[in-house]
Amino acid sequence: MVTQYLRSHVSYSRKRSFLTIMSGLIIGFCLGQIISYVTISESIKSISIPVDKNSQNDIKQLAPSINTFPEIIHDHPYDNSTVADQLKKEVRLLCWVMTNPTNHKEKARHVKRTWGKRCNILLFMSSAQDDELPTVKLDVGEGRENLWRKVKEAFKYVYKHHYNDADWFYKADDDTYAIIENLRLMLYPYNPMTPVHFGYKFKPFVKQGYMSGGSGYVLSKEALRRFVVEGIPNPKKCLPGTVVNEDIEIGRCMENLNVTAGDSRDWNGRGRMFPFIPEHHLITKVDMSWWYWQYQFYKTDEGLDCCSDNAIAFHYVSPKMMYVMDYLIYHLKPYGIVREPHRLPAKLKVGEFLPPPIQEIVNSNEDSMDDDDKLIKTTTIKSTPTEPDSREVDSKEVDSLTAKLHKPVNKKKESKSAKAIKAKTKKN
Ligand SMILES: *[C@@H]1O[C@H](CO)[C@@H](O)[C@H](O)[C@H]1NC(C)=O
Ligand SMILES: *[C@@H]1O[C@H](CO)[C@@H](O)[C@H](O)[C@H]1NC(C)=O
């Protein structure tokens, strides 16, 4: 049709047909933009993170059989857990898991049966009573828009009932998987009276960064006190009412309360708390959500070198995967290889912090990276009331941007971290 039309008009007026094509292209482009805009706003509304497509099925399959679902309960008489046991006494950890009535049976109970049981105290925060878990029934409505209120109510409850029972207070979701021993290791040197909180740090919206909600965040005893006593009652410090983005809001609140956003990377600069499942960090996906690359506070390696040997938390872990992780981490061991724990670091005084990871010191001799790093640390993006939930933006939105952001960063950093490791190995 179009070609026919063009052909019949070519001799008549070349200029005119050119204009027709151009306006056609422009209209087409605009329509495309409108359509893709609509698609994007749709996708922002629904949770569209690259989760395992089978995970919904997983939950359905797992639920009916759960009462007969066998737990791995056998001893490992030759395991030496002296150090882990010592840390359990010295670094007392209260974990509270954000859940909701739909998820009590489908997700929360699997948290309890896997990683949750390793916390000193484990609480499930929900809007409904459930004696089996059990839950703490908070007086808040359900739904994502109530998340911020729920977080505040949960920490108020924790402060009121358990302030003296723990040193650190970890908030997680019911699709978080955490390796509690490694969380204690990270916290071990810190004094609980230091105002600090740790998590996977994102850089926008809050000057010092904020902790991504999904892999959880852990507040020191003093951070908890400031939040509940000085923050929540003061609308100048912490946002009253409720919003969806609880992680950004608590980040703002922590900054206003002078609670430092801690660095959860290990001594080598490898990440320990992660916003996705292990596979998405280990096997780098170029189409991994574009915002992830923009939001990272620290430029970390992705790929097989991504993650600390003492990793602490992952997000979007399906209930089935929690059992798999538990088996791989706590049971499966290659015979004849025993890893002795490193010596524990020295304890810090109140207000003292560990120096940044070795990797950063190596990088500081290299100009290009230096500037990038500075930029990242000082960039403040002003928030707007319409900002999307950071965890809900679709991965497919800006493929080209992702590729652009992703590829050079990764290559460059890989070689650098390799250098860092070599430098470290030489020194020893
Ligand atoms: C267990 O490990 C600790 C620390 O590595 C060590 O001091 C202790 O001797 C070990 N115990 C046994 C029975 O091997
Ligand atoms: C914030 O904390 C730092 C270190 O803990 C302290 O030096 C500073 O005075 C505090 N600022 C305010 C406003 O409390």
UniProtKB/TrEMBL annotation:
Its EC number(s): 2.4.1.122
Top-level taxon of origin: Eukaryota
InterPro entries per the UniProt record, alphabetical: C1GALT1/C1GALT1_chp1, Fringe-like_glycosylTrfase
Gene Ontology cellular-component annotations: membrane
Compositionally biased intervals (Basic residues): 418-428
Transmembrane regions listed in the UniProt entry: 21-40
Keywords: Disulfide bond, Glycoprotein, Glycosyltransferase, Manganese, Membrane, Metal-binding, Nucleotide-binding, Signal-anchor, Transferase, Transmembrane, Transmembrane helix
Residue ranges constituting the Fringe-like glycosyltransferase domain according to the UniProt record: 97-264
Localization per record: Membrane
Membrane topology of this protein: Single-pass type II membrane protein
Biased composition (Low complexity): 378-387
Compositional bias annotation for Basic and acidic residues: 388-399
Gene3D superfamilies the UniProt entry points to: 3.90.550.50
Cited function: Glycosyltransferase that generates the core 1 O-glycan Gal-beta1-3GalNAc-alpha1-Ser/Thr (T antigen), which is a precursor for many extended O-glycans in glycoproteins.
UniProt-recorded name of the protein: Glycoprotein-N-acetylgalactosamine 3-beta-galactosyltransferase 1
Lineage per the UniProt record: Eukaryota, Metazoa, Ecdysozoa, Arthropoda, Hexapoda
Gene: LOC117563630
